[in-house]
Amino acid sequence: MNYNIYKKLSIEEKNKAFKKWKGDNFVYKSFSKILHKKIVELKPEFTNVLLISSDLNETIDEISKIKCKNLIYLSQYEIFKKEFFKNKQYNVIYADFDNLPFKKKSFDLVICNFCTNKVSEKKDYLKKILEILTDDGLFLCNFFGEQTLSELRQCFFIADDRFLNGAFNRIPKVDLMADFSNLLAGIGYNEIVTEKINFDIFYKNIIGILKDIKNMGEKIPIKEKREKISKTYINFLNKIYIEEFANQNLQLKVTLDIISISSWKQLKNNSKNQ
Fold it and tell me: DSSP label at 249?
């Protein structure tokens, strides 16, 4: 599946999810509080802040507590064109993640939240963010790491091999922490600091896991009929998951591995404190 088709289907999945979104997703809500604390510790006050995010209002509710003069929230999903975000203390821009409509040196803080896996050319995207940062600007990037849904990935591999004679990419793709840090350094970001934050969530059955992934709009879009899964497949998947990853109470463990990276834009021979 080429990128344009994948992107179109992925946006459709997210738009469907947002129609039923309650605005209190546990993962996004919990991480947003950690993110807010991290930002305040790095710098207590900003002038112009840009949040680019793949959730609904969980993160922006926390980011809006940061001291700043102007706050912009950008997203590429349809709900951001509607009345939901009217009369807020920040501006909302509906725009493609791949095309950031801002001038150079517009923001002293840019936050890219769970959306770097949704752009076509990551290097060009990060270069654009570097351009729109002021000379003393701070960039924060958060994304799901390689251990995210590792249990489900293994179970899918076993089930696919048994029922479909081969594995399919059913788990959202992730960025590797080391690769991403090296990419930032090569582009020109400075003082790069990486942090790994783990969440372990437990479910009663595989249906609950798959439902939550779907409700987050993070399900891999399925194009071909042969990739679809049957009830028999689901029952087998649940059986494998229990055998391999259930605790003593037969609850299924799900690992969420979140990578949070901070970096500064600096002029040569200058410090952000000058």
Answer: T
Q: Provide the CATH number for the domain formed by 3-264 in this structure.
A: 3.40.50.150
Cα separation of 215 and 14, whole Å? Answer: 8
More confident residue, 30 or 273: 30
Backbone angles phi and psi of 48, in degrees to 5: -120, 125
What does the block give as tokens for 117? 């896996």
Q: Domain segments of the chain: what residues?
A: 3-264
Q: How far apart are the first and last CA of the chain?
A: 48
- Overall residue count recorded for the chain in this entry: 274
Contact between 62 and 89 (Cβ < 8 Å): no
Distance CA 241, CA 263 (A): 38
Indicate the pairing of strand 70-75 with strand 91-94: parallel
List Cβ<8 Å contacts ≥24 apart for 21-26. 21/56, 21/79, 21/215, 23/56, 23/57, 23/58, 24/58, 25/55, 25/56, 25/58, 25/215, 25/216, 26/201
Type of residue found at 159: A
CA 14 to each of CA 9, 54, 75, 187, 227: distance values in angstroms, whole numbers, following the listed order: 9, 9, 11, 30, 20
Q: How confident is the model at residue 230 (pLDDT cuts 50, 70, 90)?
A: confident
DSSP string, 164-198: HSS----S-----HHHHHHHHHHHT-EEEEEEEEE
